[in-house]
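Model the whole thing, not chain by chain.
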Amino acid sequence: MSEVTATASNDRGFFGEGNYPGIFGWIFSTDHKRIGLLYFWSVTIFFCVGVLLGLLLRLELFAPGETIMSAQSYNATFTLHGVIMIFLFIIPGIPAAFGNMIMPIQIGARDVSFPKLNLFSWYLYITGAVLAVTSLFTGGGPPDTGWTFYVPFSAQTSTNVSLAAIAVFILGFSSILTGLNFVTTIHRLRTKGMTWMRIPLFTWSLYATAWIQILATPVIGITVALLFAERVLGTGLFDPSQGGDPIMFQHLFWIYSHPAVYIMVLPGMGVISDIIPVFSRKPAFGYKAIVVSSIAIAFAGSLVWAHHMYTSGMSDMAVMIFSFLTFIVAIPSAIKVFNWLATMYQGSILLDPPLLYALSFILLFTIGGLTGLVLGAAAADVHVHDTYFVVGHFHFVMFGGTGMAFFAAMHYWLPKIYGRMYDKTVATVAWGVIMIGFLILYISMKVVGMQGMPRRYYDYVPEFTGLNQLATVGSWILAVGLILMFVNIFRGIFKGDPVEANPWGGACLEWQIPSPPPTENFGEEDPVVTHGPYDFKKAGIL
Amino acid sequence: MSEEHAHIVPYKTFAIVWIGLLILTGITITVAQYDFGAWNVWVALGIAVIKSGLVVAVFMHMKYESRLFKLSLFAALLILAVFIGLNFFDVLYR
């Protein structure tokens, strides 16, 4: 290679060094950054589809009665909205996209432990996604069960639940393989000096998440396989007339799907834990406490699944025990929130877009978490179960939590990966619009839920009209904010001003290498780590 | 990775374990003829545990693996036991 082309390709980092021409350089690449970007674009596209479906749902609920779609279409739309947002956006969102892009660099590795397995897990993800989309147009039409696939309805409905179940099965394997890869990478590929207590908190959160992915995801595989057997072979496992137990399905489903909530939110917490110290110019307060709380959330969060089932008809003894266990999870979550606030206390706060989204996370996740305690208390839950209060609650924790963390990660790391900066003023305005829309939309949902509006119906009594219209208007404001944010980010990626290696003043390893990073991440020699991830003084930032 | 070594198990061991498994299967069938009341399930499960233990230890080479592998296996089994155990708070008290 001549000197000129070498320089040119170095400027473009790993973008200039594909092994194959054009798109093949991406879909056959085993480079963790390219796979991370494949994931990023896939999950972002599915997020936009999910948002579109959500907007349609809100439009239907603008007025009582049939507004734009029939009851059957409404059932299919909210099922699809849930399946896409959960399985195709939030679960792979932060770990598979930003985890792949950033985690190996953060620990000083040149790639993940099993690069081919990494690419294979993206193929599995796309296969699952294609099957999920195919299920809409084949067989008995789009599934109408909700993303939870509860029996007995899911075992009886003529819609295409079987194919959707296979899609979830395959997506689960994608998640397990990513988890396996990350655990091995973090154990085996840390560079010299990267001790366990010097690992950045984002990587720590991915480590905790990866263990849940490995241990809990097989259970959803088994669950949907049993559902498939129930539909195709009539095994009767969940059918009382054949000695089966429908509540057992709910147990099996939530044994995975509750820990999955932590697969969704833990990496988000990791993003926030990484961003707050950088924009406060202070070391993370209580680094060890944050690490331990990540592990504690992963552990305790795996033992609380039946709090989704207080009104299902399971025993009162189980209701009491799972209610008690649920309250335990609040402790490590609160440890994180207080540590973030203590990190910012007396710091030199820089209100750049990544920090704004991180602050939104703290506010919205805390509101979502506290309303979660209302639902975790069995006596209160009986009254608000399956109302819009629940819908408001999980949108606060999932969208307000993980979604905002995903946006924070976009604003924080995409300039690193692409080597170009977005317009910070537009990003700040977009953040403000998103927050206004978000609060109007989901607070209205919580209030109308408290008033008794049940979820999963396309119709409601006229008394609820005002708050529903307010929520729908909120959804429009939110959509405007999201469009503004994405247009600004994408414009920045392709046309923004070039950025230097360390635009935010971070002390972790990813900020020590050029933007965009070279294919092998580091030069001839592996980096040697001599200080903690938030030691700004030793890193020469302060 | 250089320390990795394959442990070769003689056919005789496999044959003995196989015969042991066959005998245990015979015992399972035999005890099924008797009624132990509430202990029915426990007896059947007990024999099944011994059988799967033999398979894991010998056929799947767990007996010759390092302590870390054994620990991982027991961690997985413990988690499974906790998941199933917590379900009994529902099933037993319903």
